[in-house]
Specification:
With about 375 residues, this protein is an alpha/beta fold. It has 2 domains: about 10-110, Alpha-Beta Plaits, CATH 3.30.70; about 120-380, Alpha-Beta Barrel (TIM Barrel), CATH 3.20.20.20. Helix content is about 45%, strand content about 15%. The protein contains 14 helices and 11 strands. An 8-stranded parallel β-barrel has the order 4-5-6-7-8-9-10-11, surrounded by 5 helices. Strands 1-3-2 form a 3-stranded antiparallel sheet. α6 links the parallel β4 (about 120-125) and β5. α1 (about 10-20) packs antiparallel against α2, α7 (about 175-190) runs parallel beside α8 (about 205-215) and α8 (about 205-215) packs parallel to α9 (about 230-235). The longest helix has 18 residues, at about 265-280. The radius of gyration is 23 Å and the shape is globular. The chain starts with 11 loop residues before the first helix and ends with a helix. It is an enzyme of class 2 (transferase). Pfam families: Pterin_bind. Pathway: Cofactor biosynthesis; tetrahydrofolate biosynthesis; 7,8-dihydrofolate from 2-amino-4-hydroxy-6-hydroxymethyl-7,8-dihydropteridine diphosphate and 4-aminobenzoate: step 1/2.
């Protein structure tokens, strides 16, 4: 007899198939193989005691502060440890419990979501001269050629920008932004490149977005997440997909000592609010972006990456964009031109944690890295 310890991230469905487990059995076993750690903030102390006992009764557990049982404080934070099957069972149990546990039950049901294995690469191109990565700046026919190259290398989405949103950058007028992006939009439309890939405009200008959406673009990449109602109206008018990105502050000052009580909970609350706003305007094609580097320090960025899968509970695709960003430099001092390796490390981890759209400057390298990672994940032994 021999025993082999398998990686926790193994494709259990493939393993069960190899063993000859029935499809019905595999469905049941997969729920037991995937474990979850769920942080619960401001849980009423009586609720924590009930949830602890209910969790233990089904083989799960709840980590709580030592004085929880005596109810010395009104509220406590806790960490639930449970597999997918246990989450569903707890959600059923807590529906009948007091002290706010009915709301916990609803949230647990939302969190019973698994990560997909597909991915899309969004290639970045900028028309402005002050974007932080010089290698993304193109104009005229050179821009058209670069777009065609990115599509050929595997990009299914192209994200065009005309205004820098790097830390410390200043906004420009709508007319100035339109003057920058209009020639590229016209070339894309003239050559019907929207038949080969989807096009996104990185903008929060209603004027520029309307111009792009009239000419084959289908995605609004709004770093302000529909702060402007006119952007919402334009997106709804053209039935566009909207990327809602979280940003604390604005580009000019966002990196001046950003602070959060709990970055996961605050970003989650922001998404909840902006999703509701999007729906109120008739926008239902939504992508979520945690906004790496937009009003966040290194610890905030790493926390959002490590727990990125949490945001799958909203039921929308997750976009992640850390391409060549300064968080790499803060981990290991590296000039922008040499940050591809760090970018790949961050983006591969993001993919493993639920991201299905990666916004990148280097398409070919990402396609290769992601293809190899997916092959590794799909290998049974």
């Amino acid at each position: 007899m021999k025993l082999c310890k398998l990686n926790a991230n193994s494709d259990v469905a493939a393993l069960f198939h190899t063993l000859g487990v029935t499809r019905e059995g595999s469905t049941i076993l997969k729920q037991k193989a995937h474990h979850n750690l769920i942080y619960i903030k401001d849980l009423k102390t009586p609720a924590a005691n009930i949830l602890k006992q209910d969790a233990l009764s089904i083989g799960a557990d709840l980590a709580v502060p030592k004085d929880t049982i005596t109810c010395k404080t009104a509220l406590v934070d806790a960490i639930l440890i449970a597999n997918d099957k246990q989450l569903k069972e707890l959600a059923r149990k807590e529906k009948a419990q007091p002290f706010g546990l009915k709301e916990v039950a609803l949230k647990l049901n939302e969190l019973c979501v698994t990560c997909k294995n597909d991915f899309e690469i969004m290639g970045v191109i900028n028309t402005n001269e002050d974007s932080f990565f010089q290698g993304s700046r193109f104009s005229g026919e050179a821009a058209l050629k670069h777009i065609e190259t990115m599509i050929g290398e595997g990009a299914s989405i192209i994200d065009l920008g005309g205004v820098s949103s790097r830390p410390g950058s200043l906004s420009v007028s709508e007319m100035e932004e339109l003057a920058r992006v209009k020639p590229i939009i016209d070339l894309i439309y003239e050559h019907k490149l929207f038949e080969k890939a989807r096009f996104s405009l990185d903008s929060y200008s209603p004027l520029c977005l309307e111009y792009a959406l009239q000419r084959g673009f289908s995605i609004v990449n709004d770093i302000t997440a529909l702060a402007n109602d006119d952007v919402a109206r334009v997106a709804a008018k053209y039935d566009a997909t909207v990327i809602l990105m979280h940003m604390q502050g604005e580009p000019l000052s966002m990196q001046q000592e950003p602070q959060y009580d709990n970055v996961l909970i605050e970003v989650d609350a922001f998404f909840e609010e902006r999703i509701a706003k999007a729906k109120s305007f008739g926008i239902f094609k939504i992508v979520l972006d945690v906004g790496i580097g937009f009003g966040k320090n290194l610890e905030h960025n790493l926390t959002l990456l490590k727990h990125h899968e949490h945001f799958l509970h909203f039921g929308y695709p997750l976009l992640f964009g850390a391409s060549r960003k300064s968080m790499i430099d803060k981990i290991i001092p590296t000039p922008i031109s040499e940050r591809l390796a760090g970018t790949l490390a961050l983006h591969l981890k993001a993919y493993e944690h639920g991201a299905t759209i990666l916004r990148v400057h280097d398409v070919k390298e990402h396609l290769q890295a992601l293809s190899v990672l997916r092959a590794l994940n799909q290998t049974t032994f």
